Here is the input.
Amino acid sequence: MQTIEIIERIVVLYGAYNIISALTILQLLEIPYIRNIHFDMITDYDNNNIMFERFVAYTMLANGIIRVLNGMTLYDRTSQLVVGGTFFLEALIMSNEYFMFHRIEPVMAWLTIVFSLYLGYSIFLHKF
Here is the structure.
């Protein structure tokens, strides 16, 4: 199995996880632990802002759909740019919240930042 095939599978699985997480936050699926993972990493969140949660879910749903649909075609340069861009955007958002506002748990912030940057660079740097 080639490296890009492994990356494609990771991207598609991560996109599916984003979709499942979004549907859980939107209360279309009942998986409380997944919902808690995303909102427990915010240090000063009081679990009372429904609109915030829904916007997070819609963003995750959009990212998940992009990653699932384009993750299967990473041999195409456009798909690489789109999918890699979603990972860089995720790393940027998490970095901003962690370094500038100190609102994210450090372990979760670092895990997300490093994982997103690794996948983004792996996708961008792959040559065919």
